[in-house]
């Protein structure tokens, strides 16, 4: 037990987390926040302005109900733009690991003969 | 009369289907040339991890089946609120590729895994995790595959020129006659054939082919529809008169009295279903594992977000315009086929375009089935045969087993459709939800939490699946009780305890129990997350060297 703890402690201090993991974690959090913001705005706006309307209350923008234009289609456009910005300005271009030969040797070797990875 | 003129679809659809089939087989043979014989499994099931941005973007979410079959019908029936229902697709690309994409692709390479169960097994260094994931995944996917074979057979049957049908949606009332079995044979031979020949790449390329064709079809139909109406507002007002004022607002027009399509609470659930259910779908995760580089993932986010913007909002506009162009339809499923026929009848080459649009559901079902076949077969070959039965298997042997697996799953699906199970669609909905609820939290834990343990992963998988199963089961019991309340005391007792159906969402007798008005996946994620975290913290930490291999430089 103590050897295991010591081993874990030693590994913890010596470890250097892969840059891809750090970047991916950050990007996942950002994507999650975008999801939360988009969902909150869309559901909030539409539930407030798109329900309980009388026929005279329904207003149109470019032929579409205004609550759809500003509550769904406008944020959709914004999210598409954000997706492009995220793709090319935020998401780090990390290499995906494993040289080709290493991967070939790993996978095509019978399981019984493989070194555990 | 318009209805008489558009009562049939002629030979254009059948001709288009033949073209689809021929193109798919050709693509399958083309894909076979790309398979590297030295890396057979990786090539056959992951396309040599060489998936490019266009293929990734347009095929990863495997959305094409429902997009062009049920979705237009919902818009035509319920109105503009369906835009709110589908709105989460504005961030699906980010969720599908940015949340776990890079980590799955990296872990897949570091562990050599070509399937999701194998990845989880290797990450947590526990055979029970892999076996559990394999059993659950193959169970869910098999049910969905059987249902898709039936859908494909029905589409083929309805494509005969004198069938008198336009709606190529699965019709549970459609009788099982000779044409159904011929359609089943043709569909099965085609899909199993090109998938068996070309593997992952054949599946992806045919899916890509179909997705691109649909984009052209939707854009063309949008132009034609907007050109044919006086105004979009006018079309909406006609729909409001025909249906109700709720066509232009939430919760949407009710097709059944007392039913609400999308109350605000349920609209929140959609942000969980489409997003969390999307990135954890096994078919999506497999494609992400096949990405050739991070640059492909980045470009895929941009491409798919643009594709979704060009598909969904236009489809909504098209289906609203239908109220101004067509007379009231008895079958809402027919809105896109009837629009296609009406809007193209007087333009040069219009029959080609209409044939393309009418045949689109067939391409969508083919793409879906091909993907499912590969996921199941990869599980059988890699997770069961190679890992459990024959670790010493050679490449030649694995090729034979792969062929047997692909063809075997196809034959099994055909046999199950000779006398199809009743309520198959209900099982499909249940299986789809289970898949999402089962893998979402475990995959997040595997990717980002060093302290996650094998026991925690198992707890998350089983509790997620169990929650979905419980809520769906409760919904089916509730439905049975409501139908038998007057004759069975037990039924009355059940209704007293759990209440009546809240009548929200899509009107479906196989709907789940909406606890607190939310979709089952919401509770599944909560339960799965709590179980995964709690059990991980209560069990011994994972081996540091194993974790380092998956997380560190």
Give the topology.
The complex is a heterodimer of chains A (117) and B (553).
Chain A lengths: L1 H13 L4 H31 L10 E2 L2 E2 H25 L9 H9 L9
Helix pairs in contact in A: 2-3
Chain B lengths: L1 H4 L6 H23 L5 H7 L6 H7 L4 H4 L2 H9 L3 H5 L5 H8 L1 H11 L4 H9 L2 H32 L19 H51 L3 H11 L21 H16 L2 H8 L4 H32 L9 H10 L5 H40 L5 H22 L7 H25 L5 H30 L5 H10 L21 H19 L5 H8 L2
Helix pairs in contact in B: 2-12, 2-18, 3-12, 4-12, 4-16, 6-16, 8-14, 8-16, 10-11, 11-12, 11-18, 11-19, 11-20, 11-21, 12-16, 12-17, 12-18, 12-19, 13-16, 14-20, 16-17, 17-18, 18-19, 20-21, 20-23, 21-22, 21-23
Task: Provide structural commentary.
The complex is a heterodimer of chains A (117) and B (553). With 117 residues, chain A is mainly α. In chain A, 67% of the residues lie in helices and 3% in strands. Chain A is built from 4 helices and 2 strands; from the N terminus they run ααββαα. Chain B is built from 24 helices and no strands. The longest helix of chain B has 51 residues, at 178-228. Residues 1-8 of chain B have low confidence and may be disordered. At the A-B interface, helix 1, helix 2, strand 2, helix 3 and helix 4 of A face helix 3, helix 8, helix 9, helix 13 and helix 14 of B.
Helix content of chain A: 55-70%
Largest interface pair? A-B, 73 and 79 residues
Poorly predicted ranges of chain B:
1-8
- Structural class by helix and strand composition of chain B: mainly alpha
Q: Tell me the overall shape of chain B.
A: globular
Mean pLDDT value of chain B = 84
Structural class of chain A: mainly alpha
| Strand-residue proportion of chain B | under 5%
Number of helices of chain B: 24
Q: In total, how many beta strands of chain A?
A: 2
Largest sheet of chain B: none
- H/E element order of chain A: HHEEHH
Rg of chain B over CA atoms, rounded to whole Å, is 23 Å
User: So what's the overall shape of chain A?
Assistant: elongated
First CA to last CA of chain B: what distance? 71 Å
Radius of gyration of chain A: 25 Å
Strand order of the largest sheet of chain A: 1-2
């Amino acid at each position: 037990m103590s050897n295991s703890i010591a081993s874990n402690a030693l590994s913890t201090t010596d470890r250097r987390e892969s840059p891809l993991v750090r970047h991916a974690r950050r990007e996942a959090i950002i994507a999650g926040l975008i999801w939360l913001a988009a969902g909150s705005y869309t559901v909030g706006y539409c539930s407030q302005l798109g329900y309980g309307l009388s026929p005279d209350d329904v207003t149109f923008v470019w032929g579409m109900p205004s609550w759809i234009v500003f509550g769904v289609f406008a944020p959709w456009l914004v999210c598409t733009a954000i997706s492009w910005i995220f793709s090319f300005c935020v998401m780090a271009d990390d290499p995906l690991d494993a040289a080709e030969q290493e991967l070939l040797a790993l996978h095509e070797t019978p399981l019984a003969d493989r070194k555990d990875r | 009369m318009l209805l008489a003129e558009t009562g049939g679809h002629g030979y254009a659809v059948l001709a288009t289907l033949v073209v689809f089939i021929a193109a798919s087989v050709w693509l399958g043979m083309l894909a076979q040339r790309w398979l590297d014989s030295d890396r057979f499994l990786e090539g056959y099931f992951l396309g040599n991890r060489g998936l490019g941005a266009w293929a990734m973007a347009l095929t990863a979410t495997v959305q094409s089946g429902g997009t062009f079959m049920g979705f237009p019908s919902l818009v035509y029936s319920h109105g503009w609120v369906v835009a709110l229902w589908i709105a989460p697709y504005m961030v699906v690309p980010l969720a599908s590729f940015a949340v776990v994409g890079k980590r799955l692709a990296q872990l897949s390479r570091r562990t050599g895994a070509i399937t999701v169960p194998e990845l989880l097994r290797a990450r947590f260094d526990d055979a029970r995790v892999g076996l559990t994931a394999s059993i659950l995944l193959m169970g869910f996917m098999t049910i969905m595959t059987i249902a898709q074979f039936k859908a494909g057979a029905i589409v083929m049957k309805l494509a005969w020129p004198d069938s008198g049908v336009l709606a190529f949606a699965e019709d549970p009332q459609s009788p099982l006659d000779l044409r159904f079995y011929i359609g089943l044979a043709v569909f099965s031979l085609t899909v199993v054939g090109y998938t068996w020949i070309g593997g992952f790449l054949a599946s992806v390329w045919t899916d890509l082919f179909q997705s691109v064709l649909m984009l052209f079809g939707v854009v063309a139909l949008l132009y034609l529809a907007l050109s044919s109406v006086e105004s979009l507002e006018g079309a909406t007002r006609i729909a409001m008169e025909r249906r109700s004022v709720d066509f232009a607002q939430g919760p949407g027009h009710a097709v059944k009295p007392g039913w609400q399509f999308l109350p605000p609470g349920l609209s929140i659930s959609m942000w969980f279903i489409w997003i969390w259910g999307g990135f954890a779908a096994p078919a999506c995760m497999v494609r992400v594992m096949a990405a050739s580089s991070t640059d492909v993932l980045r470009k895929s986010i941009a491409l798919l977000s643009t594709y979704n913007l060009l598909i969904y909002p236009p489809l909504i506009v098209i289906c609203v315009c239908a109220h101004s162009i067509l007379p009231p339809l008895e079958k809402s499923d027919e809105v896109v086929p009837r629009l296609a026929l009406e809007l193209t009848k007087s333009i040069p080459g219009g029959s080609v375009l209409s044939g393309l649009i009418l045949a689109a559901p067939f391409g969508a079902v083919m793409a879906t089935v091909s993907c499912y076949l590969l996921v199941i077969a990869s599980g059988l070959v890699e997770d069961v045969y190679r890992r459990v039965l024959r670790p010493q298997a050679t490449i030649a042997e694995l090729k034979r087993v792969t062929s047997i697996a692909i063809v075997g799953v196809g034959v099994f699906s055909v046999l199950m459709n000779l006398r199809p199970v009743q309520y198959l669609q209900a099982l499909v909905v249940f299986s789809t939800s289970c898949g999402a609820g089962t893998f979402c939290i475990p995959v997040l834990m595997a990717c980002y939490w060093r302290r996650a343990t094998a026991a925690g992963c198992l707890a998350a998988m089983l509790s997620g699946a169990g929650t979905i199963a419980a809520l769906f089961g409760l919904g089916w019991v509730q439905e049975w009780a409501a139908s038998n309340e007057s004759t069975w005391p037990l039924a009355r007792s059940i209704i007293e305890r759990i209440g009546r159906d809240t009548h929200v969402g899509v009107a479906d007798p196989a709907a789940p129990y909406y606890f607190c008005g939310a979709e089952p996946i919401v509770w599944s994620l909560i339960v799965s997350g709590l179980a995964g975290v709690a059990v991980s913290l209560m069990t011994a930490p994972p081996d540091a060297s194993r974790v380092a291999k998956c997380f560190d430089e």
